[in-house]
Amino acid sequence: IESQFVPKLYMGKEVLITAGPTVERIDPVRYLSNDSSGKMGVALAEVARDMGARVTLVHGPLQVPVPDGVTAIPVESSEEMLREVTSRFELLDLVVKSAAVADYRPKNVYSEKHKKVHGPLTIELEETTDILKTLGEQKTHQVLVGFAAETERLEEHAAAKLKRKNVDFLVANDVSGSDIGFGADDNEVVLFSGDGSILKLPKQSKKELAFELLTYFKEAVR
Ligand code: CTP
Ligand code: CA
C-alpha cells in the first residue's frame, strides 16, 4: 500500500527494530557473521514509520538502504547491539528483534592481524548474551517481539522460545526451503502469540507482511 493510505495506528508510539546480521571480530580484518540481508527488519521499520511511529533501527551491515525518517544506529557486534537496545528500552512501546544475532563470538580477539607463521589456528567460541531474553527479563509495559529461524519441528521450537524468552509474539520462519527467509523479497511465517494462539500468514512481500504483523502487534501496545 502507498504510505499515505496506511492507517496511523502507531501515532505517538516509540518503536525499535533490530535488523541484519551481527559481526563478531576475530582480528582487525576478519570476522564471523551470517547471511541475513536485513530486508525483513527494514520493511518493518519503513511500515512502522508509515503507520505513524517514531522508529529507531539498530542494525548490522544491511543489503538494503535505511528508509528516510528512521533513526539508524549502526552496530557491529552482538555486544554493541545489546548496549544500544537496552539503553533505550525504558522509553519504548514496541521492540521487534528481527536481527540475526550471532550465537557465538571468538573468546579472544586479536588486536593485530593474525599471522600465518604461528601455524594452524584454533578459534575458541563463547556464547553471546541473548538480547531478546535479557529484554524479556527487564520488560514492564513494552511489547516484545522475537523472530525464530527453524529448519525442523517449527511449532515445538517456536513455542518453547516464546516461553523461554518471555516475549509477547514470536514470528517463526521455516528456513528449510530457500525461496523465503534470508535474502528473499517474500516471506511466509507463523505468528505465535503469548496467549497461545497460532496464525499462519501466507507467502507475501516482506512489506505486506510487515504491515500485517504490525497491525497484530498493535493490539498489545498500550
Ligand atoms: N536473539 C538475541 N540474542 C542472541 C541470539 C538471538 O536477541 N544472542 C534473538 C533473535 O534476534 C531472534 C530470537 O532471539 O529474535 C530468536 O533467534 P534464534 O536464532 O531463532 O533463536 P536462539 O535462541 O538463538 O536459538 P537457536 O539459534 O539455537 O535456535
Ligand atoms: Ca540463534
TrEMBL record:
Function according to Swiss-Prot or TrEMBL: Catalyzes two sequential steps in the biosynthesis of coenzyme A. In the first step cysteine is conjugated to 4'-phosphopantothenate to form 4-phosphopantothenoylcysteine. In the second step the latter compound is decarboxylated to form 4'-phosphopantotheine.
Q: How does the cofactor bind to this protein, according to its record?
A: Binds 1 FMN per subunit.
Which residues of the full-length protein are shown here?
175 to 396 of 396
Q: Which cofactor does it need?
A: FMN; Mg(2+)
**Protein name from the UniProt record:** Coenzyme A biosynthesis bifunctional protein CoaBC
Q: Which UniProt keywords apply?
A: Decarboxylase, Flavoprotein, FMN, Ligase, Lyase, Magnesium, Metal-binding, Multifunctional enzyme
Species this chain originates from? Exiguobacterium marinum
Which catalysed reactions does the entry list for this protein?
N-[(R)-4-phosphopantothenoyl]-L-cysteine + H(+) = (R)-4'-phosphopantetheine + CO2; (R)-4'-phosphopantothenate + L-cysteine + CTP = N-[(R)-4-phosphopantothenoyl]-L-cysteine + CMP + diphosphate + H(+)
Upper taxonomic lineage: Bacteria, Bacillati, Bacillota, Bacilli, Bacillales
Single annotated GO MF:
phosphopantothenate--cysteine ligase activity
Gene name? coaBC
Residues engaged in binding CTP: D103, K113, F147, K161, K165
